[in-house]
Write a structure and sequence with these properties.
This protein has 230 residues and is α/β, with parallel strands linked by helices. The protein has helices spanning 32-38, 54-57, 60-65, 74-79, 154-159, 165-174, 178-186, 208-217; strands at residues 2-9, 12-18, 23-26, 46-48, 70-72, 86-87, 94-96, 99-105, 114-120, 126-130, 145-149, 195-199, 224-227. Bound molecules: zinc ion. Zinc ion is lined by residues 51, 53, 108, 110, 132.
């Protein structure tokens, strides 16, 4: 499978995942115009949504209108007041073309946020996608690609005097800190992992170069680390 980022920040998130037969959008938190500039929606089989926040769901109605089914939790569908979303649930596996998808719960200040494990039956790749979550508590054996939030560093966040205290507290209670991610990665068996994509870096409290170095240090040699920046 191939994973690419169209947009990755608190201003908008949208990613493309595909094998030789099936193409998915992960999130649609940018304008439909911008999405269409990067992908031909007539080739997209479905869109997976993690949660209702605008920077992940902005184009949901236009995506549905264009005939692409959208999958999300019932809580996300309700929060978006969108009955056309196909509801999926924690650990309820489903298929989209050649891809098997397993949603799993994540931890964020949203109605019912999900991450997704996607397995291609064609190339046998497994990808974990999880963003906007303060932590992760699943191990995902045999994973080949990881696309995970790497939002901020506690040190840089503390130095962000321009951010109001309330926002700073919200970030640390709802988003993934670099050390949390590194500790999580160190506890995984990543012997089959090829690439780690760092998602949703905070503009105010992250440093892409430093994050890539620290994540690389937490991984077996040879795994590539890519910071998805806009
Ligand atoms: Zn969010």
């Amino acid at each position: 499978m191939t994973f690419t980022s169209i947009a990755s920040s608190s201003h908008g998130n949208c990613y493309v995942l595909y094998d030789s037969q099936t193409k998915l959008l992960l999130e649609c938190g940018i304008s439909i115009k911008r999405i269409r500039r990067h992908v031909d929606l007539s080739n997209v089989r479905a869109c997976l949504l993690s949660h209702e926040h605008k920077d992940h769901s902005k184009a949901v109605r236009e995506i549905l209108k264009s005939g692409v089914p959208v999958y999300a939790s019932q809580g996300t569908a309700d929060a978006l007041d969108c009955s056309l979303i196909s509801p999926v649930a924690h650990l309820g596996q489903f298929q989209i073309g050649s891809l098997d998808v397993i949603p799993f719960n994540v931890f964020h200040d949203a109605a019912e946020p999900l991450g997704y494990l996607v397995h291609s039956r064609l190339d046998e790749d497994r990808l974990v996608f999880a963003t906007d979550t303060v932590n992760l508590n699943y191990r995902f054996p045999g994973v080949n690609l990881l696309a995970l939030e790497c939002n901020y560093s506690a040190q840089l966040l503390a130095q962000c005097k321009k951010l109001p205290d309330k926002l700073r507290k919200r970030i640390s209670n709802t988003h993934m800190e670099i050390n949390t991610l590194c500790n999580y990665l160190q506890a995984l068996d990543l012997s089959s992992c090829r690439s780690v994509y760092l998602l949703h870096l905070s503009r105010a409290a992250s440093s892409a170069g430093d994050f890539v170095r620290r994540v690389r240090f937490s991984l077996p040699p040879g795994v590539e680390v890519i910071a998805c920046e806009e």
